[in-house]
Every structure is written in C-alpha cells, then in structure tokens.
Amino acid sequence: MGVVMGNDGLEQRATARVVLIAAAAALGGFLFGFDTAVINGAVDAVRAGFGLGAGQIGLAVSCALLGSALGAWYAGPLADRFGRVRTMQVAALLLAAAALGSGLVTGMWDLVLWRMVGGIGVGVASVIAPTYIAEVSPAHVRGRLGSLQQLAIVLGIFVALLSDAWLAGSAGGAANRLWLGLEAWRWMFLVAVVPALVYGAVVLGVPESPRHLVARARLPEAREVLRQVLDLRDEAALDRKLVEIEHSLKMEYRPRLADLRGPRFGLLPVVWIGILLSVFQQFVGINVIFYYSSTLWHSVGFSEADSFTITVATSIVNVLVTLVAIALVDKVGRKPLLVVGSAGMALTLALMAWCFSQASGSGAALALPAPWGPVALVAANAYVVFFGVSWGPMVWVLLGEMFPNRIRAIALAVAAAAQWLANFVITSTFPALAELGLAFAYGLYAAFALISLVFVVYAVRETKGMELEEMRD
Asked: Which family does the similarity line name (predicted)?
C-alpha cells in the first residue's frame, strides 16, 4: 500500500493488515459516538416520562460524561499494566452492560447509574483506541489511520441518530410503546448491545501494541508485530527499531502522574497543551448539537419527525467532512486544519447566536421568524463542517501522537479525562443556558472558538511526518 523511508531510516510500508488492525481498534470510537449520541432522541420522552426539570434532564444526559472522565483517567494505567487489547475488551463489556441496563431503567437515578457505567466504557475506549492506533501505525500514514477514530465516532453518532429516528418513527413517537411492551426510547438504548458485542469480538483478533510489548520485555512478540504492521523483512532493521523503541520508552518503571510534573503550573508544557486541546474541543459546544439537536429544532417550531430528520442530516454532514479531514491530515498537516476550523466555528457560532437573538416567545413556545430558521440551520451545518474537518479528528490524532513514548498512555489519560469533564460542563449546563437564551449560549461557544484560534496559533506544534520517538516534552 505504499513504501517510505521513515525518519529513523527504516523502510516502512502501510500494509493492508495495519489498516484493518487500526479500523478494528477504531470500532471503540463507533461505540463512543453511538453511546454518547443515542440519548438525543430520548431526551424529550425521558423528561416527560420521569417528570424531570431542566437541571435533572441535564444531569441525566451528561452523567455519562462523568463516567467517561473516570474511565479515561484509569485507562492509561490499565493499558500499561494489562495491555491495550485487554483494556479494549473490558470497555466493550462495560458498554454492553450499560446498554442493557439503560434500556430497562425504572427511574432517573438508575438511568444515571447505567449511563455512568457506559460512560466509563466510553472513556476507556476514547483513550486506548488512539494510543493503540498511533503505536501500530507507520509515521507517514499515522494521521490518516488516527483519523479513523474520529470517523468511527461520527459514524457511531450517525447510526445512533438514524436508529433513534427509525425507532421513534416506527412507534409514532419516542414515548410510544414499540416491541415487548417497551417504549421506543428504551429500544434506542438497547440496540447498543449489538455493536458493543461486535467490538469485543473483533478486538480479540488484533495484536498487542509493539511498544507495550517492548515495555513488558516481550521482545520476540514485539518483533513479530513490527514485522506484520510495517512489513519489515530485514532482521537488522527490526533490531534497530526495537532498540529505538527501548531507548525511547525508558520503562524501568510504570508511568505515573509524577512523570507529568513540569516547571509551568505543575505540569510539562506538552501535557498542558494536550489538556487545552481537549477542553477547547468541547467548549466550542459541538456536543450540544449531537445531544440536544432534536429537542432544539423541535423547540423552535419543527415537528418531532422533521427534528429527527434534521439531526440525521447533520450527522451525515459530519461523516462526509471527516472523510475530507482524513484525506488532508497527512498532506496539509494538523495545525493548519485547526486554524481554519477555529476561525470557521467562531463565525458560524456567532451567526447562530444572531439568529436565535431574533427568536420570539420562550420555552416550548419559542419560534424563529423567517428567514432566521433556515439561516440557523445552514449556520449549524456549516459549524459542523468546520468542526468535522478540524477539531473533531485533529485533536484525537494529536493526542495519540504528541506525547513522548515514556508518558504517552498516562498523559493521554489525563488529557482525555479533561475532555470528558469539559464535555460534562457544556452538556449539563446547556438546558439552563438555553432557558437564559440560546443567543447567549451560542455566543459563549463562539467566544471559546475564537480563543481556541489564538491558542492553536501560539501553542500547538505541528507533528506531521514525525516518528513517535521524536516527540519531546
């Protein structure tokens, strides 16, 4: 599939096998997207069925993100101790259990419990998949293979929203009963059992990360995996690669939080950059679109069926632009795409804020007069385009590759935990912000997009084409 000379002087090929291995690992991203977005179609039915207020429904939607932060925090140490593959299998089991439990809840608090269990699985998958993909990928295609994680996430979001729309349509509404006497919103959760079990089965067939194997002194196995994924036939070249990995890892001990300490505010500069990349990815408000969009469009005058259709269409746009990002990441680079994305999001979010400032009424009676409804729809989809081609995939690519080998797993865990906490803040506060005014909410997200532009220009380093062994603190 292509041969290049790596910066280490080794001839490396992007084999079909490594593409399949990366795609299998990225299925965790599919579950990540599915599990976090599936609540979109159930929000109104759950709120009405359990009689929840704005703060309560915000908690019910966002509680999974607290679990995700917990899962992301412990994923690194688990992966370093038990291996990347075993940790992915644990994530699959947690997600399957959570899907079943969420579909059979009897009240708000057991929904919160099962959503948190699923969130832990999502958090683990969100850390391990990009780490694993980065560690098995040749440098010249690592960006594209790393972007498979984001492609899988947006496909998961699309399938979740499509299944929500189909189930609600089949029942005549999300709150209506469908099969086995269960409401359609319950089936929205239950169907997630299937992809979780598929993911668990698929990752049984992928090899362990060569860098983890070297760290655990399992050199013969590491040699064989490198032979497979890089298609290296020269034994001397394999020996050089193993020595290089050993030198970069310096794994006489397991990475600890103490290894992340640095001179600036207690952490290494690269760790702060990873944390801020994660925070800004969420503070621009993208998950408001994917968690609340059906409710949002319904609230401004669209029917429930039309609101589902709009939401599915937006997720299709997200998938298509992610494919564009995959084509560009190793040609254009990470930083230029982030710059374009931040500028575009700031403009489109500001336009959305202006549109909603023209709304009349409040609460369920809120309405957007002509022509502001269609303009808001166009702005929302343009915003998704700018996010999908930049901050969506680029952050995951960077988090998987930007840290030095010796701290990669634990640094990524910290950055991913920060991402989930930021996601929780945005998701849990949106219902209350929406009651204050949608113009205020989207104006706030526009301000964060503008700040993210300044951050990228001055703080983010380009990593295109660099070997993992070249990353520095």
From this structure: Belongs to the major facilitator superfamily. Sugar transporter (TC 2.A.1.1) family.
